[in-house]
Design goal:
The protein has three domains: 153 residues, FAD/NAD(P)-binding domain (3-Layer(bba) Sandwich), CATH 3.50.50.60; 93 residues; 83 residues, no CATH class. The radius of gyration is 23 Å and the shape is globular. With 360 residues, it is an alpha+beta fold. It is built from eleven helices and 18 strands. The longest helix is centred in the middle third of the chain and has 17 residues. The N and C termini lie far apart (50 Å).
């Protein structure tokens, strides 16, 4: 997408007009190693390249950004990069939900704790539009994802810590084959640290910081980038200052996702972020696990943790004196002994009560 004075790089072809009109794809950056002055777009139908001049170029082309190649063409070294890759893979299918089991049914998430030398296995059932369920099964490095339709339910039944997901889809009608993805590594660039970064170029969204999608941080982080950019443009700040503000905006979601994945067996970490590497990380991980464990039985703790995970509150809140006092003083409720589904929700999907579940 291109606008006056600013060029935004999209991930795929930018189709202009009707089907018989030219199609344009990103062909590279215009300018030199000191300043980016626009973008070069290539007409894939008719051939030829056109340069579109811009005062500011914003790379919002996503996880598959060609930024490294575009910079190399200007003789600009790539920025520093951190990668935390737990080898996460996803297998997803759509199902027809039982009547009424979308708007009146909660999202189901069967998670896995960190376990030494064992891959984590997860399963989710999300009610979505048109009376359907989006069902995703996943595992970290060392696990094997279901590839065939006849393996999908079996994986959910044998690998997950509870049979709820398998029981939900056992009688549901599948609408799609199994779609698999292995693009779940966490990756962050640091253009704000690059002393030779060309003026006139900004990086935002998944082009800057890509997350394991299970945490749901991608769109929120992109919105934070946009808000930071808007504030800097409104204040007349420089592109370098804007990039620094954008980097600060994605810091919380980056640490939340990367530090969580770093705890899984076989996770590959190529990072310099001191919060992710070093002898102290095991202590940090145990502290984080204790917070999550407490949030399962303490509503006040759960509310704060939910705000932090959803990016409604800063990560620093988990280290505040008020929160630490809450962790110590809040009276815990009895632990659940089964899925916290109400009788009317179980009736919607035709399942019996698994075990006695303590009420609030």
């Amino acid at each position: 997408m291109f606008c006056s004075g600013c060029a935004e790089l999209s991930g795929g072809p930018d189709v202009v007009g009707e089907a018989d009109q030219p199609q344009h794809v990103m062909g590279g950056l215009a300018g030199d190693r000191g300043r980016v002055t626009g973008v070069r777009v290539r007409d894939t139908g008719r051939g030829g390249t056109t340069t579109i001049e811009a005062d500011l170029v914003v790379d919002a082309s996503g996880r598959g950004s060609g930024l490294q190649h575009w910079l190399a063409a200007l003789d600009v070294p790539p920025p520093e990069k951190d990668v935390v890759d737990a080898g996460i893979g996803y297998a997803t299918r759509l199902f027809t939900a039982p009547p009424g089991a979308t708007a009146a049914f909660p999202a189901v998430n069967v998670g896995a704790p960190h376990a030494a030398n064992e891959p984590g296995h997860f399963g989710v059932v999300y009610p979505v539009e048109d009376d359907r369920w989006l069902v995703t099964l996943s595992c970290t490095r060392g696990g094997t994802l279901p590839a065939r339709e006849d393996e999908f339910e079996a994986f959910a039944r044998r690998r997950l810590g509870h049979p709820l997901v398998a029981d939900l889809i056992a009688s549901a009608e599948p609408l799609t084959p199994v779609f698999r993805s292995h693009s779940g590594a966490n990756r962050r660039l640091y253009p704000e640290r690059h002393e030779g970064w060309p003026d006139g170029l900004l990086v935002v969204g998944d082009s800057l910081t890509a997350f394991n999608p299970v945490y749901g941080h991608g769109m929120s982080a992109a919105a934070r980038c946009a808000a930071a950019l808007d504030r800097e443009l409104a204040s007349g700040g420089t592109a370098r200052r804007a990039q620094a503000a954008i980097g600060a905006a994605v810091d919380d979601p980056w640490v939340l996702a990367a530090s969580k994945d770093a705890g899984y067996a076989g996770c590959r970490i190529d990072a310099t972020d001191p919060r992710l590497v070093g002898d102290h990380t095991e202590h940090q991980r145990r502290f984080a696990d204790s917070i999550i464990d407490r949030s399962l039985v303490a509503p006040g703790v759960c509310a704060v943790v939910t705000d932090v995970i959803s990016l409604s509150a800063g990560q620093a809140e988990l280290g505040s004196s008020g929160f630490l006092a809450l962790m110590h003083k809040e009276e815990p409720r009895p632990r659940l002994t089964g899925p916290p589904l109400r009788p009317e929700e179980l009736d919607l999907v035709g399942l019996p009560v698994y075990e006695s579940v303590p009420t609030a």
